[in-house]
Amino acid sequence: MKKIILSLVVVATVLTACKENKKDKVEVKEAVQVAKVASTNNVDVASSTITWLGSKPTGTHNGDIMLKEGSLVLDNGSLTGGEFVIDMTSINVLDIPADNEGNGKLKGHLSSPDFFDVAAFPTSKFVITSVENKEGKLHVTGNLTLKETTKSITIAAAIATVDNVTTFTSEKFSVDRTDFGITYSSKKFDAALKDKFINDLMEISFVVKTKA
């Protein structure tokens, strides 16, 4: 009886991990060719952040990443473009205490060639290529570069200006890491993993603020 219950728990956990974030998955298309974004370097990197969440059958891990630099291009308060350069060396794990050995191990693994290969690719990038307002919500299309792969995605976002500080906030969205060549422990590439796989979907969100 205990074996049956344990099997049901494992199956339920696997199914949950498989389903997680699919409703937020963005469609990945070929990168859009655009003129180079005029760098205004008006983003306050100290108060801007990117959050991430990854999952597997045994649970989830989450953390954040800082920006190295960035620009938000505004026209009379409306977003028209922008570029966020992501400092991959700053990847941080939040769900494991900083003084726990597991924190350093996970951070090291994420930084390794299995995942983001930070030594070879210290930055990633999101370049806004178009912005459309639909029913009061911004639909922001941009080229996302992870490692050496660039793809076009469209995300939902909002923009607000208070006391001369403009904040760009995306809704949570999920991208398939294998579309960017990150295939470690993916069932797509190794069916023998069974329940020891890592979910292909990564959940991401942006909060980007301009300097005052």
Structure explained in plain terms:
By secondary structure, the chain is mostly beta strands. The protein has two helices and ten strands. The chain has an eight-stranded antiparallel β-barrel. A hairpin with a 2-residue loop joins β5 and β6 (137-146). 28% of the residues are buried. Residues 1-20 have low confidence and may be disordered.
Round the mean pLDDT to the nearest integer and report it.
90
Biggest sheet: strand arrangement: 2-3-4-5-6-7-8-10
Q: What is the helical fraction, as a range of percent?
A: 10-25%
Please indicate the percent range of residues in DSSP E strands (runs of 2 or more).
over 45%
Contiguous helical run count: 2
> Terminal Cα separation, in Å?
63 Å
SSE order, one letter for each helix or strand: HEEEEHEEEEEE
Please summarize the sheet with the most strands: 8 strands, antiparallel, barrel
How many runs of DSSP E, i.e. beta strands?
Answer: 10
Which secondary-structure class do the elements indicate? mainly beta
| Spans where pLDDT lies below 50 across 5 or more residues | 1-20
Overall form: globular
Query: Radius of gyration in whole Å, from Cα?
Result: 19 Å
